[in-house]
């Protein structure tokens, strides 16, 4: 289904409700530059670091598209677990999992409070930016503590620049991309207002610093387009 969420006036902050869940896959592909490519890179590193009977957690799994893609290419037995706090997203995820007959588990839960088992890999696709900065570092430490030695955390985030002009130009570049995907100026403005104070991005440097100060030995960017980046952090 095509994303038409912001073609009408929005009177509330952005939330992952049924209306968004219904069009979320289309929204991602049209709103996130090179989304499929970043997902391929994420899948590559997950599979490279996955051991027999290992565990992978996808934090904010939405409709479970990435876990389904990973499941298709598994070469060993593994536990693929998706967590989300949106019932609407998980309802669609469960339908997709059932349709594909996939061995993927999804759960309704708070990723800040969930009791994780020792895992080979964690994934977070544009999820951290929705976590309040005051508790974001606690989540990163919890992820690091739950990983095996040399386990990986692959996360994608919208990023900012602390150079005012460059940051403005990056945003303009991104809006040009959205227009090329068929979004109108009105839709772009509406979504920006709905996300105000809901989505709080860090810079590339701040994301790396956060990982290094909370249990990871190394962190770097493996993919970037303008103000969108995919990171890998190694315990």
From TrEMBL:
Q: What CDD domains does the database record attribute to this sequence? A: AdoMet_MTases
Task: Provide any one GO MF term from the record.
Answer: carboxyl- or carbamoyltransferase activity
- UniProt keyword Transferase, yes or no: yes
Q: Which residues bind S-adenosyl-L-methionine?
A: 35, 60-62, 84-85, 110-111, 125, 192
Q: Which Gene3D superfamilies match?
A: Vaccinia Virus protein VP39 (3.40.50.150)
Q: Which InterPro entries match?
A: CmoA (IPR005271), Methyltransf_25 (IPR041698), SAM-dependent_MTases_sf (IPR029063)
Q: Which GO terms describe its biological process?
A: tRNA wobble uridine modification
Methyltransferase domain location is 56-151
Q: What is its EC number?
A: 2.1.3.-
| Reaction it catalyzes | prephenate + S-adenosyl-L-methionine = carboxy-S-adenosyl-L-methionine + 3-phenylpyruvate + H2O
| Keywords (A to Z) from UniProt | S-adenosyl-L-methionine, Transferase
Entry similarity comment: Belongs to the class I-like SAM-binding methyltransferase superfamily. Cx-SAM synthase family.
Q: What does this protein do?
A: Catalyzes the conversion of S-adenosyl-L-methionine (SAM) to carboxy-S-adenosyl-L-methionine (Cx-SAM).
**What's the protein called, per UniProt?**
Carboxy-S-adenosyl-L-methionine synthase
Which gene is the coding source of this polypeptide chain? Answer: cmoA
